[in-house]
Design brief:
The protein is α/β, with parallel strands linked by helices. The protein has 2 domains: 264 residues, Aldehyde Dehydrogenase, Chain A, domain 1; 181 residues, Aldehyde Dehydrogenase, Chain A, domain 2. Helix content is 40%, strand content 21%. The strands form 5 sheets. It has a 7-stranded mixed β-sheet, sandwiched between helices. A 6-stranded mixed β-sheet has the order 7-6-5-8-9-19, with helices on both faces. The mean pLDDT is 96. Pfam families: Aldedh (PF00171). It comes from Aurantiacibacter rhizosphaerae. Keywords: Oxidoreductase. GO terms for molecular function: succinate-semialdehyde dehydrogenase (NAD+) activity.
């Protein structure tokens, strides 16, 4: 029997012969839903491109009010949305509730930012002329979103697109389309026009991506996912010089100096590394701990990890759930085994996990060095490799020795060192004495091979707008 949350939020998309969505905790089928082929997607793109003009012509206040209604509906349906998310992604129910709140915050924020798409008046270069700039919507947009935050990664893109006056088509991850479809239903209830915001689970993901890159009506693509796929999108979208926002892979260092508040560092480590079973782009991927505090940090972190509870996200709402799939759990196990073969040592006792191949116990690895593969791979699982360092320059060198530059974390009580590290770390985001950095009010994004473009904050709205320069001449004064 279908889950009540599923029947309430996705009733129009269930299809007995469609795409299968499974619960990673036990492999059971959550739902089968309709998938879209490229012919259907082409029609959806064309209807979205036609619908955007009327939407862009509405006042900013009208768009703002509609987005605010969408935000209210998301908040009113928090429990059903969270349950749906846990069923399809495996994340614990408390984390799912947190994601609903976080995802909704982008709709609230951009409902307000819609009224602030200001242009400017520039002092002219000559008499009798005036210069102004206008900010106008990019046009029809496409978004490709991942499975690890199946709701927030959509609202972070759809919120600013709709606020700016654009239309947007979202292709959610095949493993977690239900949260996205539920958002679409609530958007309809909020009176967002049907053709303006569409969620389209694709029968063939790569074919849908190719279509977004080549259809002339699509003016912008926003993608969150791997660096490898991001490079493919860049190459294919270059043929039409499409605007891109890319949030790609990471290898976040978590740096703990001897003078750090170790209690705060441990709490930050747990929040940053083990949230969503370690499956976040900004997870601490490498722990760099200074000599003087290294042994105590490893012991205390290991003790806390050993006490963690791992189970189905509905039965274990505040613990840790499974990884997204059996394949991903096997990949993480292989990384750990390779690190141990290279000399890394497990610290502490691993918690017991239920039967099911998608589960992987949280692990702390000590004696890790920069020569090991695990120090350079994006783990995307509940594993904390700890490396030792001696000096500030040593920490910076190790932290920056990666092609990625998404997020970094620093724990130190020295204010001068905080500034030196913030300025010296080659990352788009740096958290100081805090392991949770994501918020709708700040610009989210990376540098180097972690991508470009920013989501959230006022900068997030700019990603969906063009600047038009207008020169007005023949304004000489009357004689």
């Amino acid at each position: 029997m279908p889950d009540q949350a599923l029947e309430m939020l996705c009733p129009d998309h269930l299809d007995a012969d469609g795409m299968t969505v499974t619960n990673p905790a036990d492999g059971s089928t959550v739902a089968t839903i309709r998938g879209f082929d490229t012919d259907a997607l082409t029609q959806i793109i064309e209807r979205a491109d036609a619908a955007r003009h009327e939407w862009a012509a509405r006042t900013a206040k009208e768009r703002s009010d509609i987005l605010r209604r969408w935000y209210d509906l998301i908040c009113e349906n928090t429990e059903a949305l969270a349950r749906l998310m846990t069923l399809e992604s495996g994340k614990p129910l408390d984390e799912a509730r947190g994601e609903v709140k976080y995802g909704a915050s982008f709709i609230e924020w951009f409902s307000e930012e819609a009224r602030r798409a200001y242009g400017e008046v520039i002092p002219p270069h000559a008499a009798g002329k005036r210069i102004v700039t206008l900010r106008q919507p990019v046009g029809t947009c496409a978004a490709i979103t991942p499975w690890n935050f199946p709701m927030a990664m959509i609202t972070r893109k759809a919120g600013p697109a709709l606020a700016a006056g654009c239309s947007i088509i979202v292709k959610p991850a095949a493993m977690t389309p239900l949260s996205a479809l539920a958002l679409e239903k609530l958007a309809r209830e909020a009176c967002i026009p049907e053709d303006l915001f569409r969620v389209t689970p694709a029968i063939k993901s790569s074919a849908a991506g190719d279509l977004f890159c080549t259809h002339p009506a699509v003016r912008k693509i926003s993608f969150t996912g791997s660096t490898e796929v991001g490079k493919v999108i860049m190459e294919k979208a270059a043929g039409q010089v499409k605007r891109l926002s890319l949030e790609l892979g990471g290898n976040a260092p978590f740096i703990v100096f001897d003078d750090a508040d170790i209690d705060k560092a441990i709490e930050g480590a747990l929040a940053s590394r083990f949230r969503n079973a370690g499956q976040t782009c900004v997870c601490a991927n490498r722990f760099l701990v200074q000599d003087g505090i290294h042994d105590e940090f490893v012991k205390r972190l290991s003790d806390r990890v050993s006490a963690m509870k791992v189970d189905d996200g509905l039965r274990n709402p505040s613990g840790m759930g499974p990884l997204i799939s059996d394949k991903d759990a096997s990949r993480v196990a292989d990384l750990v085994a390779a690190a141990e073969a290279q000399g890394a040592v497990r610290s502490g006792t691993a918690p017991s996990v239920p039967e099911g191949n998608a589960f992987h116990a949280p692990v702390v690895l000590k004696d890790v060095t920069t020569k090991m593969d695990i120090a350079h791979e994006e783990i995307f699982g509940p594993v904390a490799p700890v490396l030792r360092f001696s000096s500030e320059s040593d920490a910076l060198r190790i932290a920056n020795d990666t092609p990625y530059g998404l997020a970094a974390y620093v724990f130190t009580s020295d204010a001068a060192r905080q500034w030196r590290m913030m300025e010296g770390l080659e990352y788009g985001m740096v958290g100081v004495n805090d392991g949770l950095i994501s918020t709708e009010v700040a610009p989210f994004g990376g540098v180097k091979e972690s991508g470009f473009g920013r989501e959230g904050s006022s900068h997030g709205l700019s990603e969906y707008m063009n600047i038009k320069y207008c020169l007005i001449g023949a304004l000489a004064e009357k004689e």
